Amino acid sequence: MVEVQEIPKKVEREFEPKIIGFLCNWCSYAGADLAGTSRVQYPPNIRIVRVMCTGRIDPQLILNAFRYGADGVLIAGCHEGDCHYIGGNYRAYRKYLLLKEFLQIMGIDEKRFRLEWVSASEGERFAKVVREMVDDIKEIGPSPLGTITTGGIVEDEGEPKI
Amino acid sequence: MEEEPRIGVYVCNCGINIGGVVNVEEVAEYASKLPNVAVARSHLYMCSDRGQGMIKDDIDEFKLNRVVVASCSPRMHEPTFRKVVEEKGLNKYVFEQANLREHVSWVHSKQPEEATNKAKDLVRMAVAKARLLEPLPQQMVDVKGEALVIGGGISGLSAAKSIADRGFKVHLIEKTPSFGGKMAQLYKVFPTFDDPQELLNPLIEDVMNHPNIIPYLSSEIADIDGYIGNYRAVIRAQNEEEEKEIEFGTIVVATGFQPYDPTGEFNYNNPNVITLLDLHQLMRDDGPTQGNLVTPADGKPPRSIAFISCVGSRQNENIVPEGKKPNTYCSRVCCTGMIATSIEVKEKSPDTDIFLLYRDLRTHGKGHEELFTDFRETGSTMIRYTDDQLPVVSNNEGAEYPLTVTSYDSLSGLNIEIPVDLVVLATGMIPDDTASQIASKLHITMSADKFFQELHPKLAPLNSVTDGVYLAGCTQGPKDVPDSVSQAFGAAAKACAPMAMGTVEVESTISVINEDYCTGCGVCQGSCEFSAIVFEDKPEGKRVSKVIEALCKGCGTCGSSCPSGAITMLHFKDRQLDAMVRAALLEG
Question: What's the number of domains chain A is made of?
């Protein structure tokens, strides 16, 4: 008798979203550090870029991140009233609201672009935000832009010189 | 002419902290193949003398002009490695750090493969930024020769006097109407059995009459901000509308502790169940009973007292009342406090029987073990309970003794019932409730237990994470009086150092405006919280914005607001950040 061997199914690798996190130095970066110090575990999908203040985050940086194939972008800064620079976080929030609408018009799901206030003492909360974002993006799949822009088409344009 | 970047990459094992999860060798090998990387190595501890020496030797040998260290958080060791490159004559802003510990190995400790891949990405991102880093001129700021001490307990008083004795003016603020803090509420302080008033009063007198100390009682901080050398606060006197604005260079935070609230545990709502601090107040001559040791409910001398240890300390998920988060730490003073107080009770009322219910007993301080020996000589009964069978305190209405404590004794293996007149809970310490406000205002971090976190537990135990803010006493974690005073003296010395120097180096990372691009629209001025941008009329008739360097705090908010792209935030340039994002997503 011939034994029919089952052909092993091709193991599909689960989609792992690539998330860029812009974190302010004083609250959220320290909060992410605290997650580490407290050994809180979260998925390894986020790549953190430290800025001094969320107010510094130029919308162009976010657009570029999506252009380079990010599946999600997180901005995290100090809670209302806690900004090290008084009101940089409010300015970040204004830009965020406008950019979020713009991204939706471009066909980027709002779950891919998130702004959260995470203080230096909220390590657990930082981990929770990352976990949620990874879960949300896994559900909606890779960025629609990812497939068309990856491949190194974007060169460093350098600084404009006069 | 721009120099071609020659980057050295150093990957740290941090003992096993990183190396135990991330394949450090693989990351270093990977880094060596990245563009412009001249050399990549790993070391057990990059921050050690040998690790630092490795970087210095390589700077000479490989003519490095950029250095990347992949180790812990830059919030931890960026100053260390900046110093290393400076010692070799490089500008400190050509250093970049990748965070492989707090952001990788400690948070992905069960995923070594993913952690190693993420580590490679972070190193690649750091190298991408390092290629574009530029040396910046060093900026200095003046330090105002005045300090603020927050909290007038034993730590705050000691710190204030210590700073004032060095010739600096001190603003000492206390929220209650009197100095002395929790120590002033105690009956006697162990292990010497001194009356705390006798210790405190001369110190308080010195502080009140010190020419360099300005005391503020019944006062609170309405507002506080600034940076090292140049802090500013608004102090508000309670019950008065009066507000006073003060300026100072450094801060010592000594907000202390408050006792754990045992409501809902050990029948605490029964008036004859009290805390150790309550018992101290009861025994004091100026207490509610003029020092007569009587039970609160019936005013009779207690025939027997049961002490219960570890209330609100060393909790776990099983022994915490619903809705509360367990305090997992040891409060360090309750064991000796409980034993010392028992000895005091025996002295005041030799006929009172004492039952000591403990989980573990730690009399760790100098002279504390001797106290334990003395306690044993009082002939009191010790019962060792376990964390899975907490003692139960029940009402005993109509019976001879109003309370019964039932406990399992793990040493005899028996369940024991003890009829008592009074139960004393040795409650632990929790941070004062003003601490969280101060933490958010001064941007100091708190550890998981909500006490203030020191910059480094071993190497910088008195520094907070914010420059110019130092920690003293129980604000940083439970401590007894000698430890609090030692820490206060240390924090005072720390606070004096920048004031004695008169100037400190600050970040050179400020905004600069390209006048050729600036259209003079003024949007940046509206975005600047520090009024650091003004108009300047150029000779050719053009009006442009200009950054006042001393006022710029380097947040970069103006840069992201400029419609013409004329503003560059140094060290966090668009181009540098974009390179990191690109490295994370497109390369690798």
Answer: 1
